[in-house]
C-alpha cells in the first residue's frame, strides 16, 4: 500500500512539473530518452522530490544513477525504509 | 493569481496598470521545453514573434541559417520572476525555485527564449535601456544589417507590469493618480490635465530585413527604415531633456538624409507625465514647428515600457497601411507647455509615408527611428 502511494506521489511530480500523461508513466521508461527530460529538468525533479517527501537529495550520490522511473521508485522506497518519518509525513 | 498582482498599486481606486491576461491554453501552445525558461515578458515576446514570423512568411531554414539574428529587450528580464524568486530565497524556500529561474530573470531572457524557440543561430543582442529598449533593438538591427553582419532580425521588446516597476514609478510621482478622472482617461498625452503614466504590458516584435533579401523571398515589405539615431543627456538620469531629444531627432534626420519638411507624422514617446511631455513637445516644436501631426498612442495603450518602441512601431506600420493617423486619446485641452504643435484629437485620414518615431527612457536615453512606407518607395 505504501509503495503504491509513493509511486502515485512520484508520478504526480511527472504529471504536474513535466506535463506528461499518467498513462505514459510505466516503470521501465527512461527519463532522458523516453520522457525527453534534460539536466535542467533533473534539477527540478530533485527539488520536486525534496518538496513532496521532505527529504534532502541534492548531495545524494544515488540520484546520479537514476535512469528509469523504476530507479526513482526504488530510491524513494529505500529512503523511506531508512527514514520512517518519510512515511509518517506523506502528504494526503 | 500570483501574490504580487495584489500588490500592484492602483492609485486612489483608479487602475494605473493594464495587465495582459493570457489564457493557459495560449501559454501551453508553446511546448513546455521552451516555456519553462520564460517569464511573462519572454512569453509575450515569443507569442508576438510567432505572429511576425507567420505574417512575414519566414521559413525555419532561413531563421536557422546563421544569417538571421534576434535583438529583443525589456526593462528588467522578467520582473515578476525577480519578485517571486527573491521572495523564495529570502524565505529559504529553495525547493520552490525552478531550475530555470535564472533564465527567466536575466536581462536578455526574451532575446534567447525567442532565438531558442525559432532556432535562430546568428547574432543575439539585448540592449536593455528601460523605455527605449525596443526602439534601440530595432535601430541596432538596422545598423547590423547595414554593416552586412546579418540578413534579417526578429527585433523589438517586451515588458511586464509588476510592483517593482509600478512601485518605483509611483514613488517618483510618475504614475497617474487622480480622483477626478476615470481609469480609461488617466493616460492623456499632451493634455492640460495629464498627471502621469498608466502602465501596460506586452510585446512588439518586427522582422527587420535587408531589402533585396526580402524582395528575393517575396516577403511583404511594410516599410523601409531610412534613419536611426540614439544619444543620451549625460547630465540627467530621470528627467527628459528637450535639447538632447531635439539633437537625437536631428541626427536621425541627417542619417535618413531628409529634411523636417519631408516628414508626414511624428509618433511621440509622450507618456502623459508632466515633465516628459513638456520636454518632448519643446523638442518636436523646435524641429518641426506646427507643420507635422504628432500623436502618442499611450492614451490608447498605456505605457508598455520596454515594449513600447516595438508596439508603437507596429502601430505606425498599421497607420501607413490604412492611411490614417491615430489621435491623442483623451486630449481635451492642449496643455500650455505643449502648445504650438499639430496634435490630432480625432483620427485623421491622410497619407502616412515618412514617419519619425521617438522613444525616451530613464537614464537620459533617447532613440529616434525614421521609416518610409512601402508605397512611398520602400
UniProtKB/TrEMBL annotation, chain A:
Main location: cytoplasm
InterPro entries xrefs: ACP, ACP-like_sf, PP-bd_ACP
Annotated Carrier domain residues: 4-80
Protein's cellular compartments: Cytoplasm
Post-translational modification as stated in the protein's UniProt record: 4'-phosphopantetheine is transferred from CoA to a specific serine of apo-ACP by AcpS. This modification is essential for activity because fatty acids are bound in thioester linkage to the sulfhydryl of the prosthetic group.
Gene3D superfamilies: ACP-like
Keywords, alphabetical: Cytoplasm, Fatty acid biosynthesis, Fatty acid metabolism, Lipid biosynthesis, Lipid metabolism, Phosphopantetheine, Phosphoprotein
GO CC term, one of those recorded: cytoplasm
Entry GO MF terms: acyl carrier activity
Recorded metabolic or biological pathway in which this protein acts: Lipid metabolism; fatty acid biosynthesis
Coiled-coil portions: none
O-(pantetheine 4'-phosphoryl)serine sites (modified residues): 39
Record has Cytoplasm as a keyword: yes
UniProt-listed PROSITE patterns: CARRIER
NCBIfam families given in the database record: PRK05350.1
Assigned protein family: Belongs to the acyl carrier protein (ACP) family.
Function description: Carrier of the growing fatty acid chain in fatty acid biosynthesis.
The name this protein goes by in its record: Acyl carrier protein
Organism: Oligosphaera ethanolica
Native organism taxonomy: Bacteria, Pseudomonadati, Lentisphaerota, Oligosphaeria, Oligosphaerales
Amino acid at each position: 500500500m505504501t509503495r503504491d502511494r509513493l509511486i502515485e506521489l512520484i508520478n504526480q511530480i511527472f504529471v504536474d512539473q513535466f506535463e506528461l500523461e499518467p498513462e505514459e508513466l510505466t516503470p521501465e521508461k527512461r527519463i532522458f530518452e523516453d520522457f525527453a527530460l534534460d539536466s535542467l529538468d533533473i534539477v527540478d525533479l530533485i527539488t520536486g522530490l525534496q518538496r513532496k517527501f521532505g527529504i534532502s537529495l541534492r548531495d545524494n550520490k544515488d540520484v546520479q544513477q537514476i535512469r528509469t522511473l523504476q530507479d526513482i521508485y526504488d530510491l524513494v522506497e529505500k529512503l523511506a525504509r531508512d527514514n520512517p518519518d518519510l512515511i509518517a509525513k506523506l502528504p494526503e | 493569481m500570483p501574490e504580487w498582482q495584489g500588490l500592484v498599486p492602483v492609485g486612489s481606486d483608479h487602475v494605473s496598470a493594464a495587465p495582459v491576461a493570457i489564457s493557459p491554453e495560449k501559454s501551453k501552445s508553446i511546448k513546455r521545453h521552451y516555456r519553462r525558461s520564460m517569464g511573462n515578458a519572454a512569453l509575450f515576446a515569443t507569442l508576438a514573434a510567432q505572429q511576425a514570423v507567420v505574417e512575414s512568411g519566414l521559413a525555419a531554414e532561413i531563421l536557422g541559417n546563421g544569417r538571421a539574428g534576434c535583438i529583443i529587450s525589456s526593462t528588467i528580464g522578467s520582473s515578476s520572476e525577480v519578485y517571486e524568486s527573491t521572495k523564495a530565497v529570502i524565505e529559504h524556500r529553495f525547493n520552490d525555485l525552478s531550475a530555470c529561474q535564472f533564465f527567466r530573470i536575466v536581462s536578455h531572457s526574451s532575446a534567447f527564449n525567442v532565438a531558442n524557440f525559432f532556432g535562430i543561430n546568428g547574432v543575439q543582442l539585448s540592449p536593455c535601456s528601460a523605455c527605449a529598449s525596443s526602439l534601440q533593438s530595432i535601430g541596432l538591427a538596422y545598423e547590423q544589417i547595414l554593416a552586412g553582419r546579418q540578413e534579417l532580425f526578429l527585433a523589438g521588446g517586451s515588458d511586464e507590469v509588476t510592483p517593482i516597476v509600478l512601485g518605483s514609478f509611483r514613488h517618483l510621482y510618475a504614475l497617474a493618480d487622480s480622483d477626478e478622472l476615470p481609469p480609461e482617461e488617466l493616460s492623456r498625452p499632451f493634455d492640460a490635465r495629464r498627471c502621469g503614466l498608466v502602465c501596460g504590458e506586452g510585446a512588439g516584435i518586427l522582422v527587420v530585413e535587408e531589402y533585396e533579401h526580402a524582395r528575393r523571398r517575396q516577403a511583404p515589405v511594410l516599410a523601409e527604415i531610412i534613419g536611426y539615431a540614439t544619444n543620451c543627456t549625460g547630465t540627467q538620469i530621470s528627467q527628459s531633456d528637450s535639447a538632447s531629444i531635439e539633437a537625437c531627432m536631428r541626427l536621425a534626420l541627417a542619417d535618413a538624409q531628409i529634411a523636417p519638411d519631408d516628414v508626414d507624422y511624428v509618433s511621440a514617446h509622450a507618456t502623459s507625465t508632466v515633465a516628459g511631455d513638456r520636454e518632448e513637445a519643446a523638442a518636436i516644436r523646435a524641429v518641426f514647428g506646427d507643420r507635422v501631426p504628432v500623436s502618442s498612442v499611450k492614451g490608447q495603450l498605456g505605457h508598455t515600457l520596454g515594449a513600447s518602441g516595438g508596439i508603437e512601431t507596429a502601430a505606425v506600420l498599421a497607420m501607413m497601411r490604412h492611411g490614417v493617423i491615430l489621435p491623442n486619446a483623451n486630449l481635451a485641452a492642449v496643455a500650455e507647455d505643449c502648445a504650438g504643435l499639430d496634435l490630432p484629437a480625432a483620427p485623421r485620414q491622410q497619407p502616412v509615408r515618412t514617419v519619425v518615431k521617438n522613444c525616451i527612457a530613464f537614464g537620459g536615453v533617447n532613440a529616434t527611428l525614421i521609416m518610409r512606407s512601402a508605397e512611398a518607395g520602400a
